[in-house]
Design brief:
Distance between the termini: 21 Å
Largest sheet: none
Number of strands: 0
Radius of gyration: 16 Å
Shape: globular
Structural class: mainly alpha
Helix content: over 70%
Strand content: under 5%
Length: about 170
């Protein structure tokens, strides 16, 4: 029979995997494909599209599990919308794809604002960086969407890992 402590430790491992996966997604995609594309979603049309689908699907599932385990509806909703992103490629399903991706990224920003524990005093700096990146891409065309998305998801992963460390100390 599984004890409560064993279940908590299992879920903490899932959270650790989510944080690491979020940090590594951009680098894995570059490494596997051999080049940087215009956006993370563009990897849906690369020679190794299944890696893109697998990474985002696993990320979505694990984020949903973490949200349920931590009783954070925003987090599990983010996970569900991340699941939709690779299942609705942007060329064939642009409205579904961009809406899902937008809701996921907005959820990341909201999560940083309302739920950051370890980096609480830096949360507005992180949000400012994210907003600046979107401005640099959409209005000034100074940075590719790939790097905007990558930096955002890396910030989310680091924040998740640091909050996990903070939470583990409290257990």
């Amino acid at each position: 029979m599984t004890t409560t402590k064993q279940l908590i430790n299992r879920f903490i491992k899932y959270e650790l995997i989510v944080g690491i996966l979020c940090i590594l997604i951009p680098f894995i995609l570059i490494l596997i494909n051999g080049e940087i594309l215009n956006s993370i979603s563009a990897f849906a049309y690369s020679k190794n599209d299944f890696i893109y689908v697998w990474l985002l699907t696993m990320g979505g599932i694990l984020i949903t599990v973490v949200g349920i385990r931590q009783n954070k509806p925003l987090m599990w909703v983010m996970g569900i919308f991340l699941l939709i992103v690779p299942l609705a490629p942007f060329v064939e399903f642009p409205i579904i794809h961009f809406t899902s991706a937008g809701i996921f990224f907005l959820g990341v920003v909201i999560d940083i604002i309302i739920d950051t524990q370890r980096l609480f005093k830096y949360r507005w700096v992180m949000v400012g960086v994210i907003i600046s990146l979107f401005i640099f891409h959409f209005f000034l065309n100074l940075i590719s969407l790939f790097w905007v998305e990558s930096i955002l998801i890396i910030i989310f992963g680091i924040n998740l890992l640091l909050d996990l460390i903070h939470e583990k100390k409290d257990l």
